[in-house]
Design brief:
There is one protein chain. By secondary structure, the protein is of the alpha+beta class. The protein has 2 domains: 75 residues; 124 residues, Glucose Permease (Domain IIA) (Distorted Sandwich), CATH 2.70.70.10. Helix content is 34%, strand content 29%. It has 2 helices and 12 strands.
């Protein structure tokens, strides 16, 4: 008999209790292992989610940079940056002069032979292509971003209003139409409706213009 009349568990019963306790310990251990596995799985899922988010953010940034690069390239293509007549020298400045007429000359005159090819100095859309008083046969190209270029005293025009042109594309031939003393090309660059000196644009985009691009 046990204490206070309680029966002491038999050896067989104690072994059975021991087995139950052992099973209970194993259950606790199994639960702990399962909990750890769940935690690792959650951490793994969190890491995967972070990786996916990071990948999406990276792609978004790359897409934005690509769009910005395309926009910059488009702007560059629309800025006058080549000589409209290959190898032509400037024979009339963007300046005040008294001959052959008195007043401020709002473009440059490029010395060239009759019939030489005139090229678009930037990509754009032909705004006008017709006779224009003292300019004679003239082409006006709208390049966007406020830029226009004029090509005057032409002997022949090879583009029409609304035509899309690319930089370097032939658009006309040198002539001496309108108020002109001989074959040459009057070349004029307009920015937001105001004539600017074309000479810095004959050999590339001017550094100051490049620096101002986004």
């Amino acid at each position: 008999m046990g204490i206070h009349g309680l029966k002491t568990p038999s050896r067989q019963h104690r072994q059975k209790l021991s087995r139950v306790q052992t099973k209970g310990d194993f259950g606790v251990q199994a639960f702990a292992v399962e909990h750890k596995l769940n935690a690792l799985s959650a951490a793994s899922n969190a890491t995967l989610a972070e990786a996916i988010l990071l990948q999406r953010m990276t792609m978004r940034i790359l897409n934005m940079r690509h769009i910005e690069a395309l926009a910059r390239d488009r702007m560059m293509a629309g800025i006058p940056s080549i000589d409209p007549v290959d190898g032509a020298a400037v024979v009339g400045c963007f300046c005040y002069r008294v001959s052959p007429d008195v007043g401020f000359h709002q473009g440059v005159d490029l010395g060239a032979s009759y019939g030489e090819t005139v090229r678009a100095t930037a990509a754009g859309t032909v705004a006008t292509a017709d006779w224009d008083g003292g300019f004679g046969q003239k082409v006006d190209i709208d390049h966007g971003n406020g830029y226009h270029t004029w090509y005057a005293h032409l002997s022949r025009i090879d583009v029409g209003v609304g035509d899309r042109v690319v930089k370097g594309q032939p658009i006309a031939l040198v002539g001496s139409t309108g108020f002109s003393t001989g074959p040459h090309l009057h070349y004029q660059v307009m920015l937001n409706g105001t004539p600017i000196d074309p000479e810095p644009y004959l050999a590339g985009v001017p550094p100051k213009v490049l620096a101002a691009l986004p």
